[in-house]
Design brief:
Length: 599
């Protein structure tokens, strides 16, 4: 969509908070965005000209239709945007890598509540704690609880009537002392509920109440000289102490708060989330985001905030972040940007974790790149041609014509130092008349890379032009028009002395004739020449054949094309019987052809 086309619909876009959606000509959803003021935000796409990435330009160019949805608040817009992105995963939106189903620990809403691990949230009045980003962590918490408090694991319906009627018998769990036996009335409901209260505190991360209660009971047993039970509680206190030290203790003065931090590069961002309860980190989670356009860290962190909420993470009253987040006032969470002290240290700890994840991603990508280095010649080319990146993708261009007739061009592609023939391309020169190699090269290079940009395809690391300074300068003109002259390396190779020319450098570079890198470039140049010449010969041959056939009375270009498509050559047409020719072009044309060849 052009700026002029947008100007025609601008007045129809509301000046209210909401969500906007961009669609292409095939009605495919390209992008979903949110805005405090829709018209102002959308207008920016069509008025901002400087410092805009090629990907953003391509998005704007492909916009065919714009849809908007007005909402009451910015918070509603954030939630709607997040749900639409997750549902449709548009091409130009940030790709959020966080599609897990997280585990919870549930206290079931029933008489003598069961406590167990689950991944399903059922709104039946039960209490859910989590989500836990580690299954191992959630199971260890459950095991810890069962060590401290014996609770039932059966799914019996323990109503007062059923227990009094004696419907149940104790099971193995009772005999191995994992359950006190509420099913047969050996544990009262009030006593069981007291256990649930303490378990609830543990799940909230508050161990202090549990510890003080146990110490009181231990003292009571000791005063009554019941040393056996006192020792049992002492063992449980030791176990609690061991469990508590497994959590990362930050500072006991820090009560309940959450932390969000971010680390990013040009392609990826990683968000680290920490939850702190009573001075201990009880939850750690990371989100991976693949960038699509020119997203700011501030916007990505807000997106992560709502994505975590959507996944079941509950934020408290206080959130530490590296900068103020544009979270609507309706949210109960207050964003704090700490400058000094323990909160600043906690934020730095979270940021370290985010940068560690980003570094791991970068190292993984580097490993993948190294795997591609299957041909050591590529490293030699990189060195000889002073390239920033390994030239796993090389393209070479050549022109061909005969005294200006049937001008054509060819582009050949080498991947990992070898021909990749499925990506070779022929070009008919459309805008140039006469024998003009410079203009032909300018045209074909422009057409090639305009197409790659429109398709959002990767650009080669090295482009080779078969020719000297003139052809090279013409190719560079097209790259500058497309705005990609700084995104790849382009050189010209002159045939006589195999000299390598760089743009703007009048003196050529000579590479050792024995160098394996020069041999790859020569092979690419020869392939481009062969491919262009074979295409040119094919066009000339067809042109000559058509000319000879169209000299026959009554045979026009379309009929000539029909004959060539069927018989393939003049020789085979001459050898064909009258009936075979008649079957293709009819009796009248067949007679004219027979008369022509009989002469």
């Amino acid at each position: 969509m052009t700026a002029e086309q947008y100007a025609e619909i601008r007045a129809s876009i509301p000046q209210k908070p909401g969500v906007y959606r961009y669609y292409d000509a095939d009605d495919l959803l390209l992008y979903v965005g949110k805005a405090k003021q829709l018209r102002k935000r959308i207008s920016n796409y069509f008025t901002k000209k400087k410092h805009v990435s090629a990907r953003l330009k391509l998005l704007v160019r492909n916009i065919h239709r714009i849809e908007t949805t007005v909402v009451d608040t910015e918070r509603d817009a954030l939630f709607l945007e997040n749900s639409l992105i997750k549902k449709h995963q548009p091409k130009y939106n940030v790709a959020l890598k966080d599609d897990k189903t997280y585990p919870y620990i549930v206290i079931k809403d029933e008489a003598f509540p069961r406590i167990f691990f689950t991944r399903k949230l059922i709104r039946d009045g039960s209490e859910y704690f989590g989500p836990y980003t580690s299954v191992q962590r959630s199971r260890s918490i459950l095991d810890f609880i069962k060590k401290i408090y014996p609770i039932r694991t059966c799914n019996l319906k323990l109503t007062e009537e059923n227990i009094n009627a004696g419907k149940f018998k104790v099971c193995l769990e009772y005999h191995i002392k994992n359950c006190i036996g509420p099913c047969v009335g050996l544990q009262s409901k009030s006593n069981y509920d007291q256990q649930i209260v303490r378990i609830r505190e543990i799940l909230k991360g508050n161990l202090s109440g549990v510890i003080s209660d146990m110490k009181e009971r231990m003292a009571e047993f000791a005063s009554e000289l019941d040393f056996e039970n006192a020792q049992l509680i002492k063992d449980k206190l030791d176990f609690i102490d061991t469990f508590a030290h497994k959590s990362k203790v930050v500072n006991t003065k820090l009560r309940d708060l959450d932390v969000l931090s971010i680390a990013s590069d040009e392609k990826y961002a990683f968000v680290n989330y920490l939850k702190v309860n009573n001075g201990a980190i009880i939850q750690v989670h990371s989100l991976e985001m693949k960038k699509a356009l020119e997203e700011r860290d501030e916007d990505l962190l807000v997106l992560a905030y709502y994505s975590l909420q959507d996944s079941g993470f509950e934020f408290g009253k206080e959130l530490l972040a590296p900068f103020d987040l544009a979270i609507p006032e309706e949210e109960a969470t207050e964003v704090i940007v700490p400058k000094i002290g323990d909160k600043k240290k906690l934020l730095m700890l979270s940021t370290k974790n985010a940068f560690q994840k980003l570094r791991e991603k970068q190292l993984d990508q580097e490993k993948q790149r190294k795997k591609q280095r299957i041909n050591p010649v590529l490293e030699q080319i990189q060195s000889d041609f002073r390239l920033k990146d390994l030239p796993v993708h090389i393209e070479c261009f050549d022109n061909s014509n005969f005294q200006g007739s049937h001008p054509v061009a060819a582009c050949v592609v080498f991947r990992n130092g070898k021909p990749f023939k499925s990506e070779y391309r022929h070009y008919n020169i459309k805008t140039v008349e006469g024998p003009n190699d410079f203009a032909s090269m300018e045209e074909v290079v422009f057409r090639r890379y305009k197409r790659l940009l429109e398709e959002d395809a990767e650009l080669p690391q090295l482009v080779v032009i078969d020719g000297g300074k003139g052809q090279l300068s013409s190719a560079v003109k097209s790259l500058k028009v497309l705005g990609i002259d700084d995104k790849l390396t382009i050189v010209g190779i002159a045939k006589k002395l195999e000299e390598i020319y760089y743009p703007g450098d009048s003196l050529p570079m000579l590479i050792d004739k024995r160098s394996p890198s020069l041999k790859v470039i020569q092979q690419a140049r020869n392939e481009a020449h062969r491919f262009a010449v074979s295409f040119h010969r094919q066009k000339r041959r067809k042109g000559t054949l058509k000319t000879e056939l169209t000299e026959i009375k009554g045979i026009g270009p379309k009929t000539a094309q029909k004959l060539l498509a069927h018989f393939k050559s003049i020789k085979k047409l001459k050898a064909a019987s009258p009936k075979e020719v008649e079957a293709v072009v009819g009796k009248k044309h067949a007679q004219h052809i027979a008369t022509h060849f009989s002469k």
